[in-house]
Amino acid sequence: MVNPANTANATADTATDTPAEAPTEAPVHKAPEVHTVVPEHRAERPSTSSTSDADSKSGHFELEKVSVSYGGDMALKDVSFYIEPRKVTALIGPSGCGKSTLLRCLNRMNDAIDGVKVEGLISLNGEDINAKAVDPVSLRMYVGQVFQRPNPFPLSIYDNVAFGPRTQGIRKKDELDEIVIDSLKKAAIYEEVKNSLKKHAFELSGGQQQRLCIARALATKPGVLLMDEPCSALDPISTGMIEDTVQQLRDSMTIVIVTHNMQQAARVSDSTAFLLRESIEEPAGLVEITDTTTMFTQPRDKRTENYITGRFG
Ligand code: ADP
Asked: Distance, CA 95 to ligand 1 centroid (Å)?
């Protein structure tokens, strides 16, 4: 049996020795400086009143000359751009152009990969997320992630969603119930599972499991949600449901979604970044980022036009 706390998942990585009683200050932070990255109020015990209680500016990233190497081989070079708060940004480009690598930089999930080196500056809410004082566990509470394949923990539906809040120290049943129900509603799966919360998560369909994983990520009240091809393993109906969920969440948090599906990028995102690795000898880079409508109607760069019109990739 897999230990959920060891599962490769941003939510699982949130397991901490947080005290059960909700402190008023930074319960999940090992270093006070992390407050500057994660808004202070986010470190408080989550309320169930909204998905994100961050102010309208929190959840923005600035990337300056970000490069990533694996074992000395540079995969991504000098990527610089701004990710707007409370908007959906899509990362598109052919397979192997570094979309997932870039996404993992945003909550330091690359830290878990041997031999990886991340250079450049990645600021979240104006502060360097790779600074020594930043606790990656706290960071991942605030910057949640959903993966390509649904990866529910081998637990009940309820316990999957309650996992993060419990690691944040929430123990009261009423409070957990409220968070679980609220998160399941926001992930648009509540109606389907409300009478079977004790059911094992593995009994759900793939699409339901993915929405459960979204609910699990939402339960820790993230200000940012990273989605790495969240629909690639799903049928069209489930894909539509996930896209509807993204639409519903878009005003309350920053969403960055990797997709190989350009129609999906066009449907769900406000801005789109196009990444490209032009040859095997060179690292990938950012070609352009712009609002999604412009990207798909009047791309600035010929390479973008060639890609979105299906000439390659
Ligand atoms: P995309 O998401 O666009 O398909 P990736 O970010 O997965 O691209 O990969 C970009 C490059 O980095 C590829 O050349 C890939 O082989 C390499 N890469 C990705 N993950 C790893 C890893 N864990 N170890 C070594 N190389 C990796």
From this structure: 9
What is the pLDDT confidence band of residue 55, given thresholds at 50, 70 and 90?
low
The predicted-structure confidence for 82-109, as pLDDT tens digits, reads as follows 999 999 999 999 999 999 999 999 999 9
List 144's β-bridge partners, or say none.
Answer: 225
* Structural domains of the chain, ranges and CATH numbers in brackets: 58-152+222-308 (3.40.50.300)
Q: How far, in Å, is the centroid of ligand 1 from the Cα of 99?
A: 8
Give the pLDDT confidence of 178-230 residue by residue, as tens digits: 999 999 999 999 999 999 999 999 999 999 999 999 999 999 999 999 999 99
Q: Is the CB of 68 under 6 A from ligand 1?
A: no
Digit-coded pLDDT (tens) for 115-165: 999 999 999 999 999 999 999 998 998 999 999 999 999 999 999 999 999
**Closest to 267 measured CA to CA, from 88, 61, 85, 83:** 88
Burial classification of residue 54, based on how many CB atoms lie within 10 Å of its CB (0-12 exposed, 13-18 middle, 19 or more buried): buried
Say yes or no: CB of residue 100 within 6 Å of ligand 1: yes
Residue pair 156/200 in contact by the 8 Å Cβ criterion: yes
